[in-house]
Amino acid sequence: MPESPFGDETGIARMVGDWAAERVVRPTDPKSSARTPEELHRDAGVTITHDGIGAEAALRVFDTVLVPATRAQDDPMNLAYIPSAPTRAAVAFDLATSAANVFGGIWEAGAGAIFAENEALAWIRELLGWPSTAGGTFVSGGTSGNLSALHAARATARTRRGGRPEQGWAIVCAASAHSSIRSAGSVLDVDVIPVPQDDRGRLTGAALRPVLEAHPEICAVVASAGTTNTGTVDELDTIADVCQDLGVWMHVDGAYGGAALAAPSARDLFRGIERADSFIVDPHKWLFAPYDSCALLYRDPELARAAHSQHASYLDGIDREATNPSDLAIHLSRRARGLPLWFSLATHGTARYSESVERSLTTAREVAAYIRGSEHLRLLLDPMLSVVIFDRPGWSEEQYTAWSKHMAITGQVLCLPTRFQDEMVLRLAFVNPLTESAQVVEVLETLR
Ligand SMILES: Cc1ncc(COP(=O)(O)O)c(C=O)c1O
């Protein structure tokens, strides 16, 4: 074998492996946060050079300058956006997944890995109550999962309805649907028609029906199973009734909240999901896997295959009878990014997953109960899942912003303002089973 132009990298592999192994178990630093490019340039120095700076120097820069300038997503007091709380098993296995360097696009190249990913998808499929013929793949995140599902929905409508309507296609959702739905609409060049929400903020079948009847160009309904801002689950049962009656594809965006399918105390909210056509959930949000990972499932994967399969002469050899993840979404090359979830599920068992999701639901309910009973705060919605939204009557926007910044800089809590009914309010998103309601209550006391 000729000598590699990169030399013997064995020592480098061990050094990086040791760093990663130590990092996986190191407690997080809640004060880590972004810095300016100028500061980073000053402290990191020049790293890309003609002859290279060597692995030791590069790793030192990563450890001492670059990682401290990233946010600890899994700190138990990071309650902003939708954080992430991967199990150590899942994070460690991400390393193993990279080391195996599997091409996860086609069965012939990645069969073992794809088989394991499909085992994890089968667990989600069972939670959905879908038939065993359902299936899917893992993509990078909810945004690409939603886009891939909606592309399949539109392609199916085009086939079934004999072409494109004169005015072009449209999709419908509530205004509370995630911004990635509007982004998908823009990429697909389909109109996004908003449907009014009920007094609990939900999209319902009753509001949906007249809109679908008035717009035959609608090719998909997007329901949220856990909106990002308030954790609201749309009325999936009545939405499924209307979609079934009118023959329209029902897509459920459970990027955040879909994890609660595993929680018996929340399962009732999802009634109707068993009739959806496509579904996404991000394991990097509330299913304890690291970035990046979105499980995308179709009731009938054949429809996805018809929409997504890429054809080219160099791809003619692909066995199309096999389960090829590349045929099911907007991607071709892909890492087997479902493996960390599979490993963590296989290691810990699904019961621990259910318990861990339940724990965040309990934390959210306890914090909501404290806010409801407090004199200085006002709970704006009873949490359906694990997002708690509240305000501090009498405070200006400047006061909210200053409090939130102070809490972040001092590492006490990451709690960012959002908007609810056009007013600035505060929002907490619980996905980490290590978050303790008593500690959250302690910081909310500082809002007095
Ligand atoms: C409901 C919902 N859908 C979609 C997304 C987009 O997911 P991603 O950031 O993984 O692309 C998010 C992100 O927070 C979300 O909460």
Please identify, by name, the CATH architecture of the largest domain. 3-Layer(aba) Sandwich
Largest sheet: 7 strands, mixed
The hetero compounds bound to this protein are: pyridoxal-5'-phosphate
Q: How large a portion of the residues is in β-strands, by DSSP E?
A: 5-15%
Q: Regions with pLDDT < 50 over 5+ consecutive residues?
A: none
The CATH superfamily of the largest domain appears as: Type I PLP-dependent aspartate aminotransferase-like (Major domain)
Rg calculated over all Cα atoms: 23 Å
Summarize the amount of helix as a percent range.
40-55%
What is the CATH T-level topology of the largest domain? Answer: Aspartate Aminotransferase, domain 2
By CATH reckoning, the class of the largest domain would read Alpha Beta
Mean pLDDT across residues: 97
The SSE string, one letter per element, is HHHHHEHEHEHEHEEHEHHHEEHEEH
Spell out the key features of this protein.
448 residues, alpha/beta, Aspartate Aminotransferase, domain 2, Aspartate Aminotransferase, domain 1, 3 domains, seven-stranded mixed β-sheet, four-stranded antiparallel β-sheet, 15 helices, 12% strand, binds pyridoxal-5'-phosphate
